[in-house]
Amino acid sequence: MTLNTALEHDFDELDADYVVAPETVTKRQPKLVPSALKAVALPGDGIGPEIMEATQRILVAGGARIDWTTCEAGASANAKGAASGLPGETLDEIAKAGLVLKGPLETGIGAGGKSANVTLRKHFELYANVRPARRLPGVITPYMDRNIDLVVVRENVEDLYAGIEHMQTPDVAQCLKLITRAGSTKIAEAAFALAKAEGRKRVTVASKANIMKLSEGLFKQACEDVAGKHPTIQSDHMIIDNLAHRLVMSPEDFDVICTTNMNGDIISDLTAGLVGGLGLAPSANLGARMAMFEAVHGSAPDIAGKGLANPTALLLAAIMMLRQGGKLAAAERIEQALYVTLEDGKDLTADMAGPRNEKAGSTSAFADRVISNLGQRSQHCPPAPKASLKLPKGKPQTTAVSAPTKRTDAGMDIFVEYGGSPTELAACLKAASAGLPFTLAMISNRGLKVYPGTVPMADFADHWRCRFASRAPQDDLPEQQMAELMARISKFARWCHVERLQMIDGTPGFSVAQGQ
Ligand code: NAI
């Protein structure tokens, strides 16, 4: 028996592994079928169960063999007391399978527990969020004639999404933006690896390093260091707001975009909009040890349970998962059936049907239509790049990528709550530091210098950064004298937090104030 005669579908020869079909194992001519992937399904909240059911049905009909373990996550798990909506058993099953297809999980806005989505990404170090935006056949958008085929590679676990926030005063909130050299290097490596795997030509690094010179600046620098190791791929840098503008003006110019978490979150919704909207946008969350695939959209509570939801984004995410698992033939077969369905325009769900079809299809009618189109190929849309991105295997990284050679302390910033004027505050702070090895160097309010020099005509919050310079640079701040200064300050103002001002290899590891 040759492989080809035994295969269920002609182009299954693309697939990676084969096993004997269980039902034919005792027969004279056993049949070879692609081996099954093991994956966890998280149907999730809102429309999640509906689109998961439709997607799984299409996968089965399309010949994708997947051993599913279905687990609970999201609002229902939260209601039962699971922290962040993620029960321990769910996390265990995910760790075992290493592959997840996830429906949307609800997160309260402005209050409530931590996001299950963000927690999952961080728990499993799924540091690369890969969001392709390809023109889809038959989907009506202002850009439908443009040849859009780009991928946003978004850092997925750092930045403002560390979720470290503090109320500094009752009226001032702070969120820490944490960017690491290791995290930035990893995501840049992932972007260049993806460019190579998919035969792409260019990686555009996008940052806001002009304003956040240290945090976004570190990201930019790390990306440039990585770019230097990949001379066959072109690389450039764009300020993120200019990137947003250029994406709207000429999206076909872009290939791979590598950016930080917050920038990537926003820009990838923009790129989803270019090719038809969130209902059509898939994403992969990749790490060295596992991969999770999901639709970009949320749980759509407004249409949940009504059979109106569009399963396309989750289906495209499942197709990405098949490619990641080496099931290239099944991925291509299902993808082509989806393209044909979109081109034909029959039974499209209401969000896609638009003016061309007053009678929109339900979620299950759309799924039936895709299934009936299995085996057909689109005339206009070639398959997506076949190769999938495999990230380098590795242990969790606990140390910095590079240790600086020399560090000294130049002073400290003490942030205080104070209700008076900057001039009064400066006088009090100077008096408080008398006899101690610190000099009041600067006071700023919301980042704007208010001392020394002219007091600006700005509104002031009751939150002030008071910068004290060490009289002489030293290896470590004198802690007893620091404590003494803070005790003296506490007599007239309430301190909120303290930052060490470090010189790293002779370069200030802290920002200056606007106007300084
Ligand atoms: P959403 O994406 O759920 O809905 C926005 C709009 O798009 C709604 O009008 C909705 O009906 C529509 N829509 C979304 N997906 C659709 C689909 N497949 N078919 C047809 N229409 C669709 O965003 P929203 O309302 O801001 O968030 C709702 C909940 O989802 C929140 O709790 C949020 O935290 C969560 N969410 C979860 C995500 C995830 O699990 N990755 C991502 C985004 C939001």
From TrEMBL:
SMART domains: Iso_dh
Record field: catalytic activity: D-threo-isocitrate + NADP(+) = 2-oxoglutarate + CO2 + NADPH
Keywords recorded for this protein, A-Z: Glyoxylate bypass, Magnesium, Manganese, Metal-binding, NADP, Oxidoreductase, Tricarboxylic acid cycle
UniProt-listed SUPFAM superfamilies: Isocitrate/Isopropylmalate dehydrogenase-like
Gene3D superfamilies: 3.30.70.1570, Isopropylmalate Dehydrogenase
GO biological process: glyoxylate cycle; isocitrate metabolic process; tricarboxylic acid cycle
Start and end residues of each stretch annotated as Disordered: 376-404
Alphabetical list of InterPro entries matching this protein: IsoCit/isopropylmalate_DH_CS (IPR019818), Isocitrate_DH_TT1725_C (IPR040978), Isocitrate_DH_TT1725_C_sf (IPR046997), IsoPropMal-DH-like_dom (IPR024084)
Stretches with biased composition (Low complexity): 386-396
Domain of life assignment: Bacteria
Entries under PROSITE patterns matching the protein: IDH_IMDH
A GO molecular-function descriptor: isocitrate dehydrogenase (NAD+) activity
Domain (Isopropylmalate dehydrogenase-like): residue spans on this chain: 38-370
Cofactor or coenzyme needed: Mn(2+); Mg(2+)
EC number assigned by the record: 1.1.1.42
PANTHER family in the cross-refs: DECARBOXYLATING DEHYDROGENASES-ISOCITRATE, ISOPROPYLMALATE, TARTRATE, ISOPROPYLMALATE DEHYDROGENASE-LIKE DOMAIN-CONTAINING PROTEIN
Subunit: Homodimer.
Family membership noted in the UniProt record: Belongs to the isocitrate and isopropylmalate dehydrogenases family.
UniProt function note: Catalyzes the oxidative decarboxylation of isocitrate to 2-oxoglutarate and carbon dioxide with the concomitant reduction of NADP(+).
The protein's name: Isocitrate dehydrogenase [NADP]
Species of origin: Candidatus Phaeomarinibacter ectocarpi
